[in-house]
Amino acid sequence: MTHLPQVAEEKTPLSLDVAGEFSLYHECMTRIYLADAQLEERSALRLLLLDLKMEVVGEAADWPTTLAKAPISRTDLLLIDWDLLPNSATAALKKLRKACPAALVIVLISHLNARQQAALSAGADAFISKGEMPERLAERLRAVAASIHIA
Fold first, then answer.
1. Which of 35, 114, 129, 137 allows an S-S link to 66, with CB 3.0 to 4.6 Å?
2. What's the confidence (pLDDT) of residue 24?
3. CATH architecture of 30-150
4. Do residues 110 and 82 lie in contact, with contact meaning Cβ atoms separated by under 8 Å?
């Protein structure tokens, strides 16, 4: 088995692949897990994330699947639709954080209102409105991704 050198060109970070071998990437990709019950919305978000050079490592249309699969996806960022959360959003997000302690949790909200504060107080790192223009949504996602790779 050939090991790649541990020194890489600038802007080509080293990362471990599944087998524990070093892999070279041309860009540092943010790994996203996307959970939304609406197939059309997941598809639109997936396309936007791919345009932003982010990697969608998993998707779910329901909360049980999100809890089961997000922890094994080695995700940097969880995009979770507010309407997907069970009645106790605080308990649900606390359980998700315990399962994915290194990931940031961004709650997607359909309607801007008191849900913003509820999402943040329930344990989300931030919220993003699904109603925002794609350019604004992209700008917010880039900012979050940048904060992950700086840390």
1. 35
2. 39
3. 3-Layer(aba) Sandwich (3.40)
4. yes
- What is the pairing mode between strands 22-24 and 14-16? antiparallel
Domain map (residue ranges) of the chain? 30-150
Q: How would you write the chain as a 3-class SS string?
A: CCCCCCCCCCCCCEEECCCCCEEECCCCCCEEEEECCCHHHHHHHHHHHHHCCCEEEEEECCHHHHHHHHHHHCCCEEEEEHHHCCCCHHHHHHHHHHHCCCCEEEEEECCCCCHHHHHHHCCCCEEEECCCCHHHHHHHHHHHHHHHHHC
114 burial class (0-12, 13-18, 19+ CB within 10 angstroms)?
exposed
Q: What pLDDT shows up at residue 17?
A: 42
pLDDT lower than 50: segments of the chain: 1-27
